Amino acid sequence: MLIFETQLALIEHLKVNSDSKSTIGFVPTMGALHQGHLSLVEKSLNNNDKTIVSIFVNPTQFNNREDLDKYPRNLESDVAKLQTISDKIVIFAPTVDDIYEGNTVSKPFYFDGLENQMEGKFRPGHFEGVGTIVKRLFEIVKPTNAYFGEKDFQQLQIIKKLVEKENLPITVVGCPIFREENGLAMSSRNERLSPNERNTAAIIYKTLLKVQQKFLTLQPSEIGEWVTQVFENQPGLKLDYFEIAEETTLVNNESKISNPKYRAFIAVFINNIRLIDTISLN
Ligand code: AMP
Prior knowledge:
The protein is of the alpha/beta class.
């Protein structure tokens, strides 16, 4: 298992150890790895000559200082988890200074309005941070294929847009959501939940499954009202937003139009910990 802590060291390694014919699979993460992350890594291992996993908690995508400070970090245990699936994975775990070179700020990005919906609205600056770090990592790693989870569906669409706009020769591969036994979407932030909170948080996915049923007969605005009520009656939980939106534009609709593919998106605070989830509706 090779671990690189500076971009120069990784670039040097890639110069010597890959050629124009070999494929590089890339899985960017913020660490505190779980089965969801590992499923992306396995997909990359199966489809590429080389797999690189980055572990980097990117400060510029956090709009909340406490969330950044409390974000779980444990490189040793992450390395051990990756080791259990393959010792051929290359890990890139740089410092903030190495990546940002003393200027830890986001660059401006325009993703055709995708950045103004949901997470963009509720976490100002978030997607400029995401665009900045992913573009930088793509420049360093130069992957053939890059793997992103559908759990962060808006992020996945934004990365596809980034690749299209910047004309990068990279295939962005979306991967399905991995869940705990109780349905809760796996997330590094789940590590901060108490056992009780984990049980309570199961209601997020249960609600999304009911939304899927209701979508057969009700309009999005009616479903939205129902979801608001569900969370008003849940002590310890606070709905940040619920939206039904078309998959490619992420624009939310009050009423259904027949053709497009729709998805429900939800963000919920459980105490101070913010969790997101999404489900396909048709
Ligand atoms: P993060 O470390 O949270 O930035 O996530 C790194 C990558 O793993 C992102 O592309 C996420 O969408 C993906 N991911 C996170 N949680 C899951 C999950 N439960 N199932 C599948 N992919 C996930």
